[in-house]
């Protein structure tokens, strides 16, 4: 063991539990120190964080829950935020990891993080692909799209597929995978720029700006005159209500996220659930963390698509930890175009 | 072919499309005549109707829909209501049916009905069981319970099962099948008499009167401290909202009916759908008409349970066609205790 090096470590701290719309002021950047060594005999790692992923589910962890969430612990006021990121191993006490290894997985929103359970991390093998992609298309967002479309919605050739928040980290991949499967794919997004991207960059068959529609039901009737087989729901709320009216018999709704609801003091009720019965619809939620055992199969397939140019990918990158709180909050006003991530360092 | 006999035929007619709460006055009894013979060369049947089934789904068919329902045509003002019943063949032009055969299936709310598609009817073989049971436990209600519990909810030993409208035609069978499967079963109903029946007659582990509960969420927490694996939903509305808060991870919600909503001008919205994601819940609607191919397997199993005394069954019988409109409307005020049916004739 070399002498213990101590370096400055800047961190993003949650100041207090959040209700309603979150703000940058609810987080602060604090300075601390990190040890770049592991205690003797311990199997922990120290990571240098390179890229941090901004994900909508993180909003839920900012609220205090009476019953703990079943998939991730709530953030603790005064402590560092935790999310997914791409990192480099700078100290290892674990036999499977060595100095310099690149990994992705759960890490702190800070420059350096001590990882007590290195088994939860994935090693990065495809360094011919931009490293940052492991915060998204080759990481959690990509796996979410893949599992939600195939394992949950059982997409098959000829299905009519609708994706909301379609230019986002997950939506852009869902749409492109569905096209590769032979589906007819329409996406909605919240700006003309994003809507345009869906058609020109991601190859969706059609797309619309939901903010410009007076009546979402009419819009969906226009884009799906024969109805929708699969709805990949990232937003919940009014769009879900309208989609239920436009589903086909034996349709499937993949419940991936409800970003329209996360910042409301009280969630809205969803009407039209009677359609689940009359049209024999399956509506199913999932959490990607349950499917990490399928990651390597997915990674191989997705890396192939990326290298063959069959899947395009758009990132929206913020530079530096100082801007991390604003980047995260921006998800909820739809500021980002494509996958939102933060660069802390490039190597 | 014998000479054509013509007999009086009294019929229940829908006077006009219904919005809001239906009333007896929306139907009327009219007198007509029926021919007790089939046209030469035609494969139709004439049925004498013995028992008519009152089912909540019939309310939906009283409303005019912009888009036709995918499983049954709306009722037509001025024409006879159509539902499920037990009947005797009194004239047959079809090679598979002869005079005197007993059948169950879709028929008119009238004394005699001409059936143009006899293939849709099931012959009744187990005459050692009360004939009226083929309007319920051995007919559509029983098959609904069976399919909803096994095919949709995938019930298995040890599951915590909650059933609403639990003393009704479907609920009482769901609960007893779940008990036979080794589940823990709690039911809700709308009167102390019904709640008592669940425990004393049908062997539910516990039951409660939802009308006496201030807070359905607290009630469910009390009856399911470890949460609910399967919710067999016959009611929708506030109970569904409360159940979502109490589901366990990987729970299943069988969407069978929404009787709390059928008579509202505008359905209520359902909150708490976010639980579908965080708890990976599958919520799935079904229509029993899709599963008639499984009827004979079901009939054999259910007839066995009935003859062995493993399943009990409670009917609520109204005598005579004159009282049929009141009997049907009574479903929506919870008047019936057990399966509601109307007797027109006994043979």
UniProtKB/TrEMBL annotation, chains A, B:
Q: Which InterPro entries would you find in this protein's record? A: ADH-like_C, ADH_N_2, ER, GroES-like_sf, MDR_fam, NAD(P)-bd_dom_sf
Q: Name one GO molecular function term.
A: oxidoreductase activity
Q: Which SMART domains match?
A: PKS_ER
Write one Pfam family the protein is assigned to: ADH_zinc_N
Record keywords, A-Z: Oxidoreductase
Q: Which domain of life is it from?
A: Eukaryota
Which positions fall inside the Enoyl reductase (ER) domain? 32-342
Describe the subunit structure. Answer: Homodimer.
Q: What is this protein called?
A: Enoyl reductase (ER) domain-containing protein
